[in-house]
Amino acid sequence: MNHYFVSQTTGKRFLAGFLDFVFVVILALFLFVPAQIIADNSGAAAVNMEIGLTALYSGLFKLDAEDNRIHEVSEDADLPEALYNFYVDKRHPDTNELQRGFSPILIDGKNFNEPEDYYVVILGKGDAATLFDFTVIDEDKPWDVPALSGQETAVKTFYQTEIEIAFTLLDNHPKVRELVRRSEFYSFITIASSYLLSAIILIIFVPLFLKDKTTLGKLVTKSVVLNHYGYKMTNLQAIVRNFSVFLFSFTFFFMPFHIISFFLSMFSKTKRSLYDRLSDTLVADKKTTLVFDNVQDETIYRKELAQRLIEVERRKSEARREELAAKR
User: Fold this and answer.
1) Which residues of 37-72 are buried (b: 16+ CB within 10 A; e: fewer)?
2) How many angstroms separate the Cα of 106 from the Cα of each of 52, 102, 147, 261, 263?
3) Under DSSP, is residue 33 helix (H, G, I), strand (E, B) or coil?
4) In order along the chain (328 residues), what is the average pLDDT of each group of 10 residues?
5) What is the rounded CA–CA span in Å between residue 268 and residue 248?
6) Could you give phi then psi for residue 69, rounded to 5 degrees?
7) 27 by DSSP, 3-state: which?
8) Are 243 and 281 in contact (CB under 8 A)?
9) Would you say 135 and 121 are in contact if contact means Cβ atoms under 8 Å apart?
10) Every domain of the chain and the residues it spans
């Protein structure tokens, strides 16, 4: 065993792991851009475009001319038109045929929702408790049904409630749910690929080109990984250890492997983490540990050190004799 081995403190080991995670996240942010471009070319852009068109077609969203983005209809003045456009099926501009929207059929037995269906089922036309006056309806603005006298506040609340119901119906529509699922899948693949690729680069490949074969976190905290005798680890041990860190702490990060590893290094007598046990290594404080290639190098060093100490003692003895002789 290396007689000059000093274990790294638990705090610095935790800090090294945390820094490795931070470095991976930073690199992942840079890799996210090309990963997003690849995902867009693979179909993500088409899905997002279809989601945008679906949102506009539903009537519950509108395109903002200022920022060129699609926003939910939220202004009270826009709610009647949005609700009407959601429930009433539109006609194709070329064939003039009705097309099904994303609202449920309002009247059983019919294949489409027409304006009269909307007035009767949603606005309560013909119902004594209706809030609206259907005597005058503007053909150019069929959604703008005036409120009965004294019912303006109730109508405002009615539209706010009904628009929330409409959004819920849209979210639960099978086509919308499928589009959202595909969009989320592309987003997950983009984030996961950039994250895992950055972890592979920084945890597995970069250490292979560093002197001590350690990660950047250990490099910053002045930590060095040695074999179980306290001497330099082999390339195979470095690969096994770093791959274990990548696999258990970055790929399966949602499972408590890294927590188990941390507590093992904190409470075990040998201070060996899960990764140390898998690769048969130890983590030392580089500032206070003398690192040797093997036991022969340490033996040579100790012999040279002993010779230097003997030489120092010899010189001290000569100096004392000379001093004594001078006094005589």
Assistant:
1) eebbeeebeebbeebeebbeebbbbbeeeeeeeeee
2) 25, 12, 22, 59, 61
3) helix
4) 90 92 96 95 95 93 85 92 94 81 92 93 92 88 92 94 95 95 96 96 95 93 94 93 91 79 80 90 94 92 91 86 81
5) 20
6) -125, 155
7) helix
8) no
9) no
10) 1-290, 294-328
